[in-house]
Amino acid sequence: MNQTARIISIYAADTSGVCSALYEFGGMTVIHDASGCNSTYTTHDEPRWYDKKSMMFISGLTEKDAVMGNDDKFINDLIIAANELNPKFIALCASPLPAMIGTDLEAIAYAVENETGIPSFSVKTNGMNSYIYGIQNAFLELAKRFINAKSSSNSNIKSNIESTVIFDNKTSKIKVNILGMTPLDFPKKEYFNSLKSFIEDSGMILNACMGMETSLCEVENLADANVNLIVSSSGKPLGEYLYDKYNIPYVKGVPYGIGFAEKIKESLILSANKKTCIDATKDLREKGRVAILGESVLSASLASALLIDKGIKADVLETVGEGDFEILKDFDISCDDEKILEDTLKNFDTIIGDPLFKPICKGKNFIELPHEAFSGRCFTKNSPNLINTNISII
Amino acid sequence: MLKSISLNENKIPEGIKISETNFDNPFHDGLHYNPPARGVWNIVHTGMLIPEAHQIYVCAQGCLRGVILTAAEMNRMENMSWVALREKDMWNGEMESRVIEGCSHIVEEMDEHPKCILVYLSCMHLFEGCDFKVIANELKERYPDIDWVDCYMTPTMRKTFEPDVMMKKSLYSPIKKLDENKKFIGLIGCDRATDKSCEIYTLLDKANVKMWEITDCKTYEDYLSLGSASLLISYLPVVNYASMDLTKRLNIPHLPLDLSYDDEEIMSNLKSLAKALDLDETIADEITFETKKEAGESLERAKQTIGNTPIAIDASATPRPIGLALLLVKNGFNVSRIYLDAFGKKEKKAFDELCKLKHDIEIFPTMDPVMLKASDENTESEYLCIGQKSAYFCQSKRFVNIIEGGGMYGFDGIRHLGEMMIDAYLNEKDLKLTISHKGLACESCL
């Protein structure tokens, strides 16, 4: 039955996505919520919470404030905290109840900005969508607010779309933005390190990362890049925005394995030179008896890497219910219903997925690939780094 | 007047002297910060105490995430299911049927019906004016072999009915009246087992009375046997609403024996229990003659070991942090900090006495946003802490790792606490690892 699960877990919600996306940019992010969203996020969805401080709070909404529409209290509390902590920006998002009673967060952000002078904005959430939706909206809002177009050094504006710069990676290096990188999909710092090394070893320069091991300066410089590398569905709307507004093309895919990493490298160079957007997985997929469960860009990338490096044909079973569906093939499936998923999995011999899917994969060869957005910190320590290296899980 | 805690020139929160703190409203209740100390139990942990029961949560994805992963970390996904509410559910008038059909689907998917299912409804149901009776009646009619229990995950109501208080009421709601057993009483309200060495158990032994504790129940039948109790006792404040409900439904008297660190109150409680057990009240004096002495000796040993080391206490460790601070100050300990967001009403007497005895104890909130800056992970402090939150804020590896009193009661509890303080002082803990564990004493996959 739709929206119902007997035994599997559930993906992180949009509110956690917003917090995860904005974590490292020096702002203050506040979920308009009674209680619970903060504990859930900081316990299960934020591996950085203990070691790296960030201003992530909730409003502490009560039933009285909800019934009476007491927005003044929320505004006042935001101003008190902002004056004490001096954040670089203030971002607001809503849990289900404010969404239900129609709280105007945009107006509240406007009032707070007027009072404090601190850039403030709302990010669309309602606590009922997945983390992908929250991250996508948060990155977009942040970029729209802080990109410094004047700093753009390579004429990345639409009017210059005909201009071309030939990058040979010797005299003129390609500057790359990573888009869609949060701990919900990449829970360990080593993933970022591997991705950065991959870019640098490919003769390119990392211009900015959205959003791990980063800062607000990198957001301001986003338009300086020559190409964007979209490593998850969470980065796609920002990639499209940067292409539409600044003519910066994107490549979709995570450089898993050896052969597919090489393919990504070639795609980045081609994309930067030709100003065209490329789905690196496009011609590297074939239907098989292996199913990969999870987020679409990560799963399609792994399927492509398995085909190139090991000759294994794998289908993607997109299980978040949100994200980049364009990357999926006709034989792939998008399904967030436990019962249908369980029945569909009967058609496969081997399943690659988060351990919390295991109870519906009985009798199958199950290969564990932990996904923070699904199982939180339960299996983080077992999460393998597959970026630009031999894939040893299968 | 409400005090707003501020950062000092070094960007570190400054506490407020206890003597300058407003007992009724110590701090401004603004935005909330959440420190990474996870030992305190939530409604999932508590619900799992009912043997052979299953839990179904019906709420939005964001709310589901926390409870589902609580169960996952406990390795109890087998006992956990969910129904997600989407935006359309808010407007289509099908809130009740979504719960009923979702729960029915889950039951149909099970190999065997559980004996009891706890159905947790959310703030969204509350604000929609959802008809809980219709849901309960329909599920009972469809599956009469299952005890259906309505539970609530409604944190917006926390100022009137805290989720913990509501949960404690739900925890005992399947209990039905059984033939009374005069030699059987029930201890309600505790998630953790109570020390068998405490004076409550000694008195029960004297009266030849057995006690029901939920942590001892292995089967659903064990759990239901509370219905035969002749008396209900409790010592944690969170149980009041549940005790009222049980007393009304089952006609079993309730005797509150509040956890305390005050000699007089402990004696008064034990005498009340002795009387309720038809024992001579003087027996309380007899059985505490030794334990009271041992408690004093334990604190003395602790003082000799700990010396003048500053001590910090937080409200997650005990419902009476002020009473505990007073006990320690009276015994010569250097209590310097207390972390809490509000004072318990029953702590007023201890508060007034503590203000006189040590007026400069610093009071800190735990949820105020500036507390984000309170801990410096790169600097280890000298504090001996009682409770996970104070240990985190002080960044101390020397801490007594307890929640809600730690199952310690009476003079025996004080003796035990003294021993735990010595152990905490002598044996450092891995702070991050220890406080990351969700639900102290629960199984964990981490």
What does this structure look like?
Chain A has helices at about 15-20, 35-45, 65-70, 70-85, 95-100, 105-115, 130-145, 190-200, 215-220, 235-245, 260-275, 295-310, 340-345, 370-375; strands at about 5, 30, 55-60, 90-95, 120, 175-180, 205-210, 225-230, 250, 280, 290-295, 315-320, 335, 350-355, 365-370. With about 400 residues, chain A is of the alpha/beta class. Chain B is of the alpha/beta class and about 450 residues long. Chain B has 3 domains: about 15-35 and about 300-435, no CATH class; about 50-170, 3-Layer(aba) Sandwich (Rossmann fold), CATH 3.40.50.1980; about 180-285, Rossmann fold (3-Layer(aba) Sandwich), CATH 3.40.50.1980. Chain B contains 17 helices and 14 strands. In chain B, helix 13 (about 320-330) links the parallel strand 10 (about 310-315) and strand 11. In chain B, helix 4 (about 95-110) runs parallel beside helix 6 (about 130-140), helix 7 (about 165-170) runs parallel beside helix 10 (about 240-250) and helix 13 runs parallel beside helix 14 (about 350-355). Chain B is globular.
CA-CA gap between termini of chain B:
44 Å
By CATH, the superfamily of the largest domain in chain A comes out as Nitrogenase molybdenum iron protein domain
Unreliable spans of chain B are: none
In CATH, the architecture of the largest domain in chain A is: 3-Layer(aba) Sandwich
Oligomer: heterodimer
Q: Beta-sheet strand percentage of chain A?
A: 5-15%
Order of helices and strands of chain A: EHEHEHHEHHEHEHEHEHEHEEHEEHEEH
How are strands sequenced across the largest beta sheet of chain A? 7-6-8-9-10
Most extensive interface: pair and counts?
A-B, 68 and 67 residues
- General form of chain B: globular
Mean pLDDT across all amino acids of chain A: 93
Report the major sheet of chain B.
6 strands, mixed
Number of separate strands of chain B: 14
Q: Approximately how much helix is present in the residues of chain B?
A: 25-40%
Percent in strands of chain B: 15-25%
Straight-line distance between termini of chain A: 32 Å
